[in-house]
Write a structure and sequence with these properties.
One of its GO terms (molecular function) is unfolded protein binding. It is built from two helices and two strands, in the order αββα. The protein is mainly alpha-helical and 103 residues long. It has a single domain, classed as Helix Hairpins, CATH 1.10.287. Strands 1-2 form a two-stranded antiparallel sheet. The longest helix has 47 residues. It is rod-shaped and about 80 Å long.
Length: 103
């Protein structure tokens, strides 16, 4: 009897530890996305201050390459959309992963 309870408890502890690892991994990914979102919002604000006479460069490997201002703004906008969507998708739990007792 005690052995059965011990095995069941051990199984539950292992499930709990796995959930903690999953949560930690999720939070780490979320923090990384939030940092990227903040950084890209700052870039968007800086690009909004520029006019057509300013020169914009982008970093490709070790080389700076000239880029059109409109293209730079579009790229940052798309990146913001992607990051925002990724954060949203990570926020919504997969129904298969949520225990029935949650609902």
């Amino acid at each position: 009897m005690a052995e059965l309870i011990q095995k069941k408890l051990q199984g539950e502890v292992e499930k709990y530890q796995q959930l903690q690892k999953d949560l930690s991994k999720s939070m780490s990914g979320r923090q990384k996305l939030e940092a990227q979102l903040t950084e890209n919002n700052i870039v968007k604000e800086e690009l909004a201050l520029l006019d057509g006479s300013n020169v914009v460069f982008k970093l490709l490997g070790p080389v700076l390459v000239k880029q059109e201002l409109g293209e730079a703004r579009a790229t940052v906008g798309k990146r913001l959309d992607y990051i925002t969507a990724e954060i949203f998708l990570r926020t919504i739990p997969d129904p298969g992963d949520v225990p029935a007792s949650f609902f």
